[in-house]
Design a protein that fits this description.
alpha/beta; Carbamate kinase; 2 domains; four-stranded parallel sheet; four-stranded mixed sheet; 7 helices; globular
Length: 221
C-alpha cells in the first residue's frame, strides 16, 4: 500500500517487480506468496465482529487481488508470470497444482501463490512455509517492514538488539513475532531456512537472495 492508509500503490508493485526481475535474470527460480493486509486482514479491526472463517476467506480474496497486480507489474517488466490460487477463480488464476507449479518454475516463469492455503485460520506465513516445501524451495525470504528479528520490539525498547542468525527453537521459546508458530514449526521440522529482511529498502531482495546477512536475520537449525 506504500504511503497510503490502505489499498494498492502500483508504484510499489512496480518496484517489487523490478527487484524480482533482477533475481529472475540471474537464473534463479522464484515463487512469491503475497499477503492481503493492505486490503483486508481477517483478524484485524476491519473484520469487526465478523465470523472468523468468513473474514479469513475475504482476506484470501485480498491476496488474489494483490497477486494479479504483481503479475501485471512483472509482465510489464517482461517476466513471464503465473498466478496460482488455492481458491478456484479460473478467470483470474490457475488452480494450485503442485506439479504444474514446479513445471512453471522449470520453464523460468515466476509463480505467484495466492489465497493462502485455501483454509481459514491459517496465515500467509503458513502458506509460504507450505508452498515452499511443496516446490522444494531452498529458502523462504520473508520480506517485511523490519530489518530482521530483534530481542524485543525495537519501536518500544531502545535496548533491543538484532539477531544476525537465530535458531527456530529460540524463535519459538522467546515467542519472537516474526512468523506465526505453526509456520516456524513447519520450517523447523523440515529444516527450511528463513531469511527475514526489510523489503522496503531498494535492492534488499537481491541482497537477501545473495545471502547478505547484514540486511536481516537468518533462521535455521
Amino acid at each position: 500500500m506504500g504511503a497510503q492508509n490502505y489499498g494498492i500503490d502500483t508504484k510499489v508493485a512496480e518496484a517489487v517487480a523490478q527487484e524480482i526481475k533482477t533475481v529472475h535474470d540471474l537464473g534463479i527460480e522464484v515463487a512469491v506468496v503475497v499477503g492481503g493486509g493492505n486490503i483486508f486482514r481477517g483478524v484485524s479491526e476491519s473484520a469487526g465482529n465478523m465470523d472468523r472463517a468468513a473474514a479469513d476467506y475475504i482476506g484470501m480474496l485480498a491476496t488474489v487481488m494483490n497477486a494479479v497486480v504483481l503479475q501485471d507489474a512483472l509482465e510489464h517488466a517482461d517476466v513471464y508470470t503465473r498466478v496460482m490460487s488455492a481458491i478456484d477463480i479460473p478467470q483470474l488464476a490457475e488452480p494450485f497444482i503442485r506439479r504444474r507449479a514446479i513445471r512453471h518454475l522449470e520453464k523460468q516463469r515466476v509463480v505467484i501463490f495466492a489465497a493462502g492455503t485455501g483454509n481459514p485460520y491459517f496465515t500467509t506465513d503458513s502458506a509460504a512455509a507450505l508452498r515452499a516445501l511443496e516446490i522444494e524451495a531452498e529458502v523462504i525470504l520473508k520480506g517485511t517492514k523490519v530489518d530482521g528479528i530483534y530481542s524485543a520490539d525495537p519501536n518500544k525498547d531502545r535496548s533491543a538488539t538484532r539477531f544476525e542468525t537465530i535458531t527456530y527453537q529460540q524463535v519459538l521459546e522467546q515467542n519472537l513475532k516474526v512468523m506465526d508458530a505453526s509456520a516456524i514449526s513447519l520450517c523447523k521440522d523440515n529444516d527450511l531456512p528463513i531469511m527475514v529482511f526489510d523489503m522496503r529498502k531498494s535492492e534488499n531482495i537481491i541482497k537477501a537472495v545473495c545471502g547478505d546477512l547484514s540486511i536481516g536475520t537468518l533462521v535455521s537449525n
